[in-house]
Specification:
Elements lengths: L27 H4 L4 H10 L2 H8 L3 H11 L3 E7 L22 H10 L1 H6 L5 H5 L1 H29 L8 E6 L7 H11 L5 E6 L2 E4 L3 E4 L22 E3 L7 E7 L5 E8 L7 E2 L16 E7 L11 E8 L2 H14 L4 E6 L8 E5 L12 E2 L2 E10 L1 E7 L2 E21 L2 E12 L6 E3 H12 L7 E6 L13 E8 L5 E5 L17 E8 L1 H33 L15 E8 L3 H4 L6 H10 L12 E6 L2 E3 L16 E3 L3 E7 L1
Length: 650
């Protein structure tokens, strides 16, 4: 119904200025008296359990709730604090304390001094009284368990979603390593069975304080809070090692037709690579967990909606082989999937945690966490899954025409070969003849007064005919050495090389140039990639909105065609970047992404929520300014010193 239609007046006793009053069951009768667009705004402010209760009160409330459930969501919140005190039973069984010797008790006191002092024990002699120590440990255990419940309740309240979330992402600094599995389980107990809790511990994280993006209407602005305000600033923060303890929590809800699948793979050389929660139906660490496993949590209810055929896979683990193998498996199953992720650098038994929502004997829990392995979550039915990857490679010196190049194969082990390229000579512009490739490197050294620590050789095919090769991107190759004649040996640095294939013949012409890494070039590269991703997101948003509106009857109100779009980004940044790379400036990469994404939009530059971690190795496609940059069909590989973002249009 339109806002201009005649509607019953709202009783004077109803407080419509505050949505909290509608949480009171006594106010439910007033709900039906408001215009439809106001009801939608109210429902977007209420938690999904309250909306479910409202849906039972009237047909109009049920209809509004059904509309809100079509609305995707990306909401993020950060907690800059250490975890609550660890539980005593993480290390010892409280019941065995009565049999301990005095020396064992003293060691116990030293290890848990922070917990014991919480209860103000007067002297060490009092602490060593066994009966008091048992009581004390029981109190500490109860206090810590209660603190975790309070934290989980606070997170659910802060991330109040108007409809059931499908994914809950956790990223925590190393101080949370022992507590993250507990937090994940507590949150899973409070979330529906269609929700997956997925997170990791790392030396640093990327977080956005209190940020929401909810679906919006055809004006293409982002209603960040769902209350009609189209802008809300929240700069993303890169919390590096030494910046303090922090926990980032984000919830995602997919549009209708979306799907969620979890996968994990462990290192076959590690028999105990999967940990489990106490309520798992098996005993022992990893005793019944296969080396590979996948499970569909949310099945897509039919074919992808118009404009929603993208897929994203997020991989996190502490084992490089398992992570790379999982990326290959996903790429084989879904060649068009945008794959990204990172190697965790956290401490503790489980670097990655994964759990399924639900509570009780009929719950279907997933393994609590994995070490020496990798876990992935695959999201289907997305509008956009655009990679934004930057290394910051900058050309130094001139571009040379390659005179002679040779493809070489080396047998690494039976059945496996390594391919390299030998660039024997380049054309000399001054003499018009050929010069050894090493001469170009020597000329660069003389010009710069030395060679940079990070140095690659960029290679590309020369454009044929009258076309220009200035728009072609170079592939960066590692310089492995040289031969006696001054030729350079180069090898691909990230996966198979596009120029080490048999498709090239003797007539193929190449160009080469030397590259190093530069902070300002990295920002420009990331800004360009994010700007392109923002255009993709907005174009997909327009297409999805038009498809939704055209599928609706002409009598349907604009509010009924609920904005079917939300956006957010996941980050996997090399832990060697950050302030040290960007001349002591903080959070440069994450904020460059936000600014680039906002180019061409009528939203705030910081309206994109970002969350993620600082990784020990990044998983993704090629950087934007390099060969294959932005192409999601390329297989993802493990890289180093890169900033990997994936922008999701839900």
């Amino acid at each position: 119904m339109d806002a201009a239609d005649t509607s019953p007046s709202v009783p004077s006793g109803a407080d419509v200025s505050s949505t909290s009053s509608f949480c009171d069951p006594m106010c439910f009768p007033y709900y039906d008296l408001l215009p439809e667009e106001i009801l939608i705004k109210i429902s977007l402010k209420l938690p999904y359990k309250t909306n479910a209760l409202l849906a039972c009160t009237s047909k109009s409330a049920a209809r509004i709730t059904a509309l809100v459930r079509k609305k995707p969501l990306f909401k993020s919140h950060a907690y800059h604090a250490p975890p609550p005190p660890s539980t005593v039973d993480d290390f010892v069984d409280v019941q065995t304390l009565e049999t301990w010797t005095t020396r064992q008790l003293k060691n116990f006191v030293r290890k848990f001094e922070n917990i014991l002092t919480t209860f103000s024990m007067p002297t060490l002699d009092d602490v060593l009284e066994k009966s008091k120590l048992v009581d004390l440990a029981a109190q500490a255990q109860k206090r810590a368990a209660s603190a975790m419940d309070v934290l989980a309740d606070q997170i659910i309240q802060d991330l109040s979603a108007p409809a059931e979330p499908h994914v809950c992402l956790l990223f925590a600094t190393s101080a949370w390593a022992d507590d993250l599995p507990v937090v994940a389980r507590k949150l899973a107990d409070r979330l529906p069975p269609t929700c997956v809790v997925y997170g990791a511990v790392a030396s640093g994280i990327v977080a956005t304080p209190t940020k929401t993006q909810e679906g919006n209407d055809d004006n293409m602005d982002v209603d960040v809070d769902g209350d009609g305000d189209k802008t809300s600033d929240a700069n993303a923060q890169e919390i590096e090692h030494g910046d303090g303890d922090a926990l980032s929590v984000s919830v995602l809800r997919l549009a209708p037709g979306g799907g969620v699948k979890v996968m994990w793979r462990r290192d076959a050389h590690s028999p105990e690579s999967i940990n489990s929660f106490p309520d798992m139906p098996h005993t022992g660490r990893g005793s019944c967990i296969p080396p590979t496993f996948e499970r569909t949590i949310l099945a897509a209810d039919g074919p992808p909606r118009p404009g929603r055929s993208s897929c994203a896979a997020i991989i996190m683990g502490d084992d490089a082989r398992a992570s790379a193998s999982l990326a290959e498996q996903i790429h084989a199953q879904i060649p068009s999937a945008t794959i990204s992720g990172g190697l965790c650098g956290g401490e503790g038994d489980a670097s990655v945690v994964i759990a399924r929502g639900g509570k009780g004997p009929h719950a279907d829990p997933l393994p609590g966490g994995c070490s020496n392995g990798a876990a992935a979550i695959v999201l289907t039915g997305l509008g956009v899954a655009a990679p934004c990857i930057s290394r910051g490679a900058k050309q130094i010196g001139d571009i040379y025409s390659v005179a002679r190049i040779e493809r070489q194969e080396h047998t690494v082990c039976p059945g496996h070969k390594s391919v390299s390229l030998a660039i024997h000579a380049v054309h000399n512009a001054e003499t018009g003849g050929e010069s050894p490739a090493m001469s170009a490197l020597a000329a660069l050294e003389n010009r710069l007064g030395g060679l940079p620590n990070a140095l690659w050789l960029g290679l590309r095919r020369k454009a044929s005919g009258s076309g220009s090769s200035s728009e072609q991107r170079f592939e960066l190759l590692n310089i492995e050495g040289h031969d006696r004649e001054g030729g350079l040996y180069v090898q691909p640095q990230d996966g198979p090389s596009a120029f080490a294939e048999n498709g090239d013949n003797e007539e193929t012409e190449f160009e080469c140039a030397f590259y190093t890494v530069n902070a300002s070039a990295s920002v420009e590269e990331l800004h360009a990639a994010a700007s392109h991703a923002g255009e993709q997101v907005r174009e997909s948003q327009r297409a999805a909105y038009e498809a939704e509106r055209s599928a609706s009857s002409t009598s349907t109100s604009k509010e009924e065609v609920v904005g079917t779009f939300a956006a957010g980004a996941l980050a996997f940044l090399c832990c060697g970047r950050g302030a040290r790379f960007h001349n002591h400036a903080c959070s440069v990469d994450a904020r460059a992404l936000q600014r680039g994404f906002g180019v061409g939009a009528r939203t705030s530059a910081t309206s994109l929520p970002v969350c993620g971690l600082m990784a020990n190795g990044e998983l993704g496609g090629r950087p934007w300014n390099e060969y294959g940059g932005g192409d999601v069909t390329k297989a993802a590989t493990l890289m180093a010193f890169t900033a990997v973002f994936v922008t999701l249009g839900l």
